[in-house]
Amino acid sequence: NIVIGGAAGAFPPMIGWAVATGGVSVESVLMFLLVFMWTPPHFWALALFMKDDYSNAGVPMLTVTHGRPATRKHIFVYTLILVPCALALALSSIGGPVTLAAAIVLNALFIRGAYRILRRDEAVAEADRYKAERGFFKLSLAYLFLHFGALLVEASLKPFGLGGW
User: Fold this and answer.
1) What is the secondary structure of 10-47 as a DSSP string?
2) Engineered SS bond to 102: which of 20, 68, 83, 150, CB 3.0-4.6 Å?
């Protein structure tokens, strides 16, 4: 449900681009991919510590259908796939040094967090009330905001001959 539904949430940057420019471009596809690939790790981290709520509501979240160990593996794999999308956006015509620096730092933190989740034993996670999973979820909120914030900084600097490639 998250992978398919993630597309709906990822279309707004592409739609906004199409409205502003009259078409779809590599940059708009990269923004779509950033949001699309970010969505599963973001929501699956939430699902790890909210599993009972999804199960009780009958929502077929990955934690409910395949369990927490499979969810942890999926978070890690999707995070690894997310990295080239973020770096490609930083290297595109709307990216620049600020966006690249943000992408490097944010993705290093995201990989580290996803790896910590992957390596977690369920008993330990339960004992500490899913501390790592909650931390990763909070990081995921900042991750997307800061990526788009970096793009905004790049766009703001371009009229002054700064930023961008």
Assistant:
1) HHHHHHHHHHHHSS--HHHHHHHHHHHHHHHHHHHHHH
2) 150
Q: Which residue has the tokens 């199409």?
A: 18
Q: Which residues contact 151 (CB under 8 A, 6 or more apart)?
A: 89, 94, 95, 99
SS (H, E, C) 64-86: HHCCHHHHHHHHHHHHHHHHHHH
- Alpha-carbon span 163 to 149, nearest angstrom: 13
Angle between helices 26-49 and 2-21 (to 10 degrees): 150
Residue 64 contacts residue 53 (beta carbons within 8 Å):
no
pLDDT tens digits for range 64-74: 999 999 999 99
pLDDT for 85-114, tens place per residue? 999 999 999 999 999 999 999 999 999 999
Show the tokens assigned to 163: 């930023």
Token duo for residue 77 = 């794999």
3-state helix, strand, coil in the chain (%, to 5): 85, 0, 15
Burial class (CB within 10 angstroms; exposed 0-12, middle 13-18, buried 19+) of 141: exposed
Determine the longest span between alpha carbons in the chain, in angstroms. Answer: 55
